[in-house]
Amino acid sequence: MKTQEEIFNTLKKIMSEMFELAADDIVPNANLKDDLDIDSIDAVDLMVRLRDITGKRINPEDFKNARTIQDVVDTVYRINAA
User: Fold this and answer.
1) What is the 3-state secondary structure (H, E, C) of the chain?
2) pLDDT in tens, 20-49
3) Per residue in 9-20, is it b (16+ CB within 10 Å) or e — as a string?
4) Minimal CA–CA distance to 12: which of 44, 46, 57?
5) pTM of the model
């Protein structure tokens, strides 16, 4: 996952599988809590899965301010670039 588009597509697939979400609902501006009903426990599960895929340690603080799918994409992109 090198580009933001690759990250988004991977995230979309993961979230569809993990949380049984419709792929069409997973759009960059979708709010994790309000639109997708992702709670804090779900967010931790997602972080663990992303860590497994990227091979990089993901600090919970990095996701603290993530509110949308695009925020998650940006965070993963930044961690991958580091």
Assistant:
1) CCCHHHHHHHHHHHHHHHHCCCHHHCCCCCECCCCCCCCHHHHHHHHHHHHHHHCCCCCHHHHCCCCEHHHHHHHHHHHHHC
2) 999 999 999 999 999 999 998 999 899 999
3) ebbbebbeeeee
4) 46
5) 0.91
Separation CA 72–CA 47 (nearest Å)? 10
Distant-in-sequence, close-in-space partners of 13: CB < 8 Å, separation ≥ 6: 23
- Residue pLDDT, tens place only, 54-74: 888 887 887 888 999 999 999
- Name the CATH topology of 4-81: 1.10.1200
Structure tokens at 40: 């804090």
